[in-house]
Design brief:
By secondary structure, this protein is an alpha/beta fold. Helices cover about 35% and strands about 15% of the residues. The chain has 2 domains: about 20-200, P-loop containing nucleotide triphosphate hydrolases (Rossmann fold); about 215-305, no CATH class. The chain has 11 helices and 9 strands. The N and C termini lie far apart (about 55 Å).
Length: about 300
Amino acid sequence: MTVRIDPPSATAEGCASCSMANLATLRKLGITMDDWDYVAALAGNPNVGKSTVFNALTGLRQHTGNWPGKTVARAEGGFQYAGSRYKIVDLPGTYSLLSTSLDEEIARNFILFGRPDVTVVVVDATRLERNLNLVLQVLEITDRAVVCLNLMDEARRLKLTIDERRLARDLGVPVVPTAARQGEGLPLLLQMIDEVATGKTICRPRRIQSEPPALKAAVAHLTEQITHAFPGLPNARWIALRLLDGDERMAEALRTGELAELGQVSAGDGRGDGAESASSDADSGEPKRPAERPARSQGRSLQVESLR
């Protein structure tokens, strides 16, 4: 299999997969898609070899900067595969997406509002159980994901055996074993990124559906309120779950209008990220006290205070 990492054409029209509304959202997040067809996000816990995977995929076609209005560094690069040009964004290394830190908030916002064509979650094959918490949280937000089971060379050295096919069945998304330092598994990883981004492979993530009836009713009611107050906001159900879990940063973002601004996207733009899921049993976080005012969007308001 030949992998080409070439400069994009100067005459490119830019991101054939992106709606105009989503292009605007990506620009708000500091990402331009003028010379690229697809955008991929790279997520993972710290110290799982994520930077090694990023460097292997992008080669020298990368640059760094800061996220807009933040002091957190952002790295992005690109590669070309099977005739398509991919921009890949290296998200901050995090253990969760619960927005209890700035890094988590940035990663969450990019996956939720940037709606990348594919999110690659890099996990440490020697510490799989701990890493799966982030995988499950990503799958609550997006249907388009690939799990990169990295450090397989270390797993073999420790005589660990992982059934990646069964793991893929259990998660409902492709799982690719890699040892990025040696280049092992990268051709298949590129293939899976391309297949998920282009829709050749349809992911069907398995999500926790164990809410008691009272919680299901509360989630449905709150989801309806959010959808009414913020038309087009992606994955209103996931936001409802975060609010019910006491995520005060999410509540604050609703009150201040931050989510409404980021969420100004057209409903049903075909990107397949309306994950209707329950929250992971591992969800937890320390809330931060928000300002006491309602969020507003198109003349409607959602009184977040009354939902606590």
